[in-house]
Amino acid sequence: MSATGGGGGGGGGGGQEEDKKPADQAHINLKVKGQDGNEVFFRIKRSTQLKKLMSAYCDRQSVDLSSIAFLFDGRRLRGEQTPDELEMEDGDEIDAMLHQTGGAL
């Protein structure tokens, strides 16, 4: 798994792109966007549990894993889920939200 903060992906390949396609299908590029608008990009296997991505994101942001909720399409993610289970596509965005406590009226 690799993570890059900020900018976009790297350069392209030559004429062998078609040959690489089947191997690339095993991996997916995901973007985790924090409440502050900061984006961190990850490339993981489609079969990798998301807890690996979640933990790596929290390490990079210096926050505790238990203080962040990860959302995809408005639904909270669980660490044991995989991109395949959730039918994620290349380039999909995961939202990282700080837990909010309280809220009494």
TrEMBL record:
Q: Name one Pfam family in it.
A: Rad60-SLD
| Residues of the Ubiquitin-like domain | 26-103
Name the major location.
cytoplasm
InterPro entries, A to Z: Rad60/SUMO-like_dom (IPR022617), Ubiquitin-like_dom (IPR000626), Ubiquitin-like_domsf (IPR029071)
For this record, the Gene Ontology CC terms, alphabetical, are: cytoplasm; nucleus
The protein's location, in the record's own words, is: Cytoplasm; Nucleus
Locate the region Disordered. Answer: 1-25
Entry protein name: Small ubiquitin-related modifier
Lineage of the source organism? Eukaryota, Viridiplantae, Streptophyta, Embryophyta, Tracheophyta
